[in-house]
Amino acid sequence: MMNFDDLIWARAIHVLAVAHWIGGVAFVTLVILPLARSLPAQEGLALFEAAENRFAAQVRVSIPVAGAAGFWMTYRMDLWSRFLDPHFWWMTAMLGLWVVFSIVVFVVEPLFHARIENLARANPPLALARIKRMHSMLLALATVTIAGAVAGAHGFYF
Q1: CB 138 within 8 A of CB 46
Q2: Residue 109 contacts residue 50 (beta carbons within 8 Å)
Q3: Are 148 and 158 in contact (CB under 8 A)?
Q4: pLDDT, tens only, 31-50
Q5: Cα–Cα dist 121/42, whole Å
Q6: Rounded to an integer, what distance in angstroms lies between the CA atom of residue 139 and that of residue 99?
Q7: pLDDT tens column, 66-118
Q8: In 3-state terms, what secondary structure has residue 51?
Q9: For the range 71-79, what are the long-range contacts, defined as Cβ-Cβ under 8 Å and sequence gap of 24 or more?
Q10: Angle, vertex CA 73, rays to CA 69 and CA 78, nearest 5
């Protein structure tokens, strides 16, 4: 009999990492940014930056952990063919979401940090509006992906 303990742990770790990562994105998008936009410009920007800086440090751990656990499950269960099967579109969506967030967090943000800060100083309301739009789009993509993955993992095909 095969021991599946590593798969149980991998799934638990994967779900916890995704819950932290996307839950944080939801909190920033739906709570912090609207609050920041309702405050005077400099106060709102300071609130957003403080929250985002704390969360960014944490998400730099949860994104790689989610990816490593997802890769491990795919490898252990030999699920590579699912990436080519339209019924399992959510597998490709999960990978794509992970790639997009990895690029944003580990490449785009560090490369354009100074530029974003300059825009924020010059025009805080515009900067917060753009940040809110980007976060909203990413959250919508994540929401569709999570819903599809949970439904798909339980046998529902769209």
Answers
A1: no
A2: no
A3: yes
A4: 999 999 999 988 999 999 99
A5: 8
A6: 14
A7: 999 999 999 999 999 999 999 999 999 999 999 999 999 999 999 998 888 89
A8: helix
A9: 72/6, 72/10, 73/7, 73/10, 73/11, 73/14, 76/6, 76/7, 76/10, 77/7
A10: 150
Query: At 150, which amino acid appears?
Result: V
Helices then strands, counting H and E runs in the chain, come out as: 6, 0
Domain ranges (residues) in the chain: 5-153
Q: What is the mean pLDDT of residues 138-157?
A: 94
Contact 35, 47 (CB under 8 A): yes
Other Cβ atoms within 10 Å of 87 Cβ, number: 12
On whether the CB atoms of residues 35 and 48 are closer than 8 A, the answer is: no
Which whole-number Å values give the CA distances from 50 to 28, 36, 46, 47, 105, in the listed order?
11, 11, 6, 5, 16
